[in-house]
Amino acid sequence: MPDFALEIENLVKIYRMRRGGLFGRASEPIRAVDGLSFSVPRGTIFGLLGPNGAGKTTLLKILSTLIQPTSGRARIEGLDILAEPLEVRRRISTVLQETAVEMFLSVRDNLLTYARFHGIENREAQRRSERVIELFGLAPEIDRKVQDLSGGFRRRVQVAKVFLVPTPVLFLDEFSTGMDPILKRAVMDSLRDESAHGRTIVLTTQILSEAEELCDDILILNKGRQIARGDLNTLKLLSQGVYEIAVTFDALPPGIEEAIAGLHPLRSQVSGNTIEVALKAEEGDALEIVGALAKRGRVLHVEIRGASLEDIFVELTQKD
Amino acid sequence: MSAITAILYRESKIRATNVTFVFWDFCYPLFNLLVFGVGLTAAFGSPHSTAGFDYNSFFLAGVLGMASFAIASNSSWSFFMDRDNGIFYEMLTYPMSRAEYLLGKLAFNVFIAVMQAALTIGVGASVLGIKLRFDLFPVLAIAIVIGTAGWFFFYTILALRIRRNDVFNSVTSALYFVFLFFSSMFYPLGPLPAFLRRAALMNPLTWEIDLLRYGSIGLGDPHQLAIEAAGFMLFVIACFAYAVHSLNQE
Questions:
Q1: Which run of H or of E encompasses B108?
Q2: Backbone angles phi and psi of A283, in degrees to 5
Q3: Which of A91, A133, A179, B176 is 20 to 30 A from B51, comparing alpha carbons?
Q4: A1, A161, A191, A227, B45 from A44: Cα distances, Å
Q5: ipTM of model
Q6: Which domains does chain A have, with CATH numbers?
Q7: pTM to 2 decimals?
């Protein structure tokens, strides 16, 4: 059994699009994935982060055998995705970014049909579906057709399906879209549990706090290339000297937003009487900035933190 | 095999949610026979070149061929629906090959085709007095299966290559006209003008219908039928290969 669930070598995907119309000329080719190489140990929760168009979804589509790479190699559980796509599909479950459900079937039939495709016999599928129905709160809607459910519920059904099957690798493309916070927490707990039992989970997300909380290992992509890789602490080292400062005033002082803009922050936000600033500075300078801000009004609360994943992400992708 | 049965299960579950569709699927060729066939027999009697057979008997193979064409057209719409629901792409990540995916969908179409053929042939023989050649039924059964397969794979290619359903609709409407009327579906080819006869002889639908006609009432030249059967098999294999290729290009 291979040590790595995923092994990727110099993977490239170039899209060649037409400008539209029957006689449209070919547009410039787009390098959606541009020479990626990495491997992921078994049992890891691996996060793929990046701005829109970074190549995350393309990469997941290649790994789940939906599309073929232009060049390079990828192996899942030691199996080459091009040479043995069927064997690869037997080892993966995929939640695509777009909602993917059987609209005309009931919730129950969606689950049972999915299980059948993965070779699980009916009685076992029924047993497994009971656990999933409870986890995803699907019981009240179990016999309703999915076309009659809200978008959030459809997404639940889609994500619930992959918890029915014991495939060793799970791909999740923005799985939490449309989920309420309680369900999201339950699903994240389940993902951690699955990972603890040896399942490898590869996920993309735009919600960086989710990745920060969930992922053992993170790869940040931009323009199809790797720009950073490591666990959260390793990534934080890449962004040393980035601080998040939050100051709450009893009333927002006049001219504070202009003053903050003058600090050239990585990002800033004003909500109510609280300002939040992320900036690159020496430790002493950060304290001086807090002091200067405090002189502008009556301060109720001050907080200084190290860089969050969001700060690291913004800094690295902007630098790139 | 389990992938094919899973597709079969899925297709039948979905189709079972639409009773109108099931009814129409099963009864479509029979209604054609009862309306067109009976009407044309009453109006024109037996065609000269099919002496010994009335128009109902002649037209029986035509409605079975028309039905395999219609099943293919209807089921290729499911690719558009599955794309809209997102499930199409998810299914391509399931543990099955692209060939199994298509064969599973075909298996369901064959089931429909066999059911509607049984109904049509049964009513045709008992109500319209069509004299069937039971000894040739294996030919008929094979023609129904490969006919359904050929048109299903052909329409699958169109559905996969043409991504807009309005364009697909226009193309298939045009093809419907060309394939149905440039064939031996409605009329024997002998008395036709040369250009029409030549076009019809190059039409795979003619080859299928000629086989169905021979298998149902024994009408046809076995030597020509052997060539047409070989041609249709090539058509099926080529369409299947290209449909699998198109799925890989999705």
A1: helix B98-127
A2: -60, -45
A3: B176
A4: 16, 21, 10, 20, 76
A5: 0.85
A6: 4-236 (3.40.50.300), 239-319 (3.30.70.100)
A7: 0.84
Tell me the two tokens of residue A240.
């040393």
Pairwise CB contact (< 8 Å): A66 & B97: no
Q: Of A43-47, A149-153, B18-22, B64-68, which has the strongest mean pLDDT?
A: A43-47
Q: Closest-CA residue in chain B for A81? A: B93
C-alpha atoms less than 13 angstroms from C-alpha of B43 in its C-beta half-sphere: 6
Q: What is the pLDDT of residue A320?
A: 66
| Of B225, B201, B81, residue with least CA distance to B139 | B225
Size of interface A-B (CB pairs under 8 A): 75
The residues of A whose Cβ lies within 8 A of any Cβ of B are: 64-68, 85-86, 89-90, 92-94, 96, 98-105, 109, 113, 116-119, 145, 158
Nearest to B187, CA basis, from B39, B43, B48, B27 = B48
Q: In one letter, which amino acid is B41? A: T
| Burial grade of B33 (CB within 10 A; 0-12, 13-18, 19 or more) | buried
Strand pairing report for A45-49 and A217-222: parallel
Q: How many Å from the N-terminal Cα to the C-terminal Cα in chain B?
A: 23
Contact flag A117-B91 (C-beta cutoff 8 Å):
yes
Q: Residue A42: phi, psi to the nearest 5?
A: -65, 145
Residues of chain A with pLDDT under 50: none
Look at residues B184, B238, B186, B240 and name the one whose alpha carbon lies nearest to residue B208. B184
pLDDT in tens, B71-107: 888 888 889 999 988 899 999 999 999 999 999 999 9
Residue B203 to residue B208: CA distance in whole angstroms: 9
Q: How many structural domains are present in chain B?
A: 1
What is the Cα gyration radius of chain A?
A: 23
Q: What's the domain range around B223?
A: 2-248
d(CA A168, CA A2): 12
Give chain B positions within 8 Å (CB) of A103. 81, 85, 87
Query: Do A67 and B250 make contact, defined as CB atoms within 8 angstroms?
Result: yes
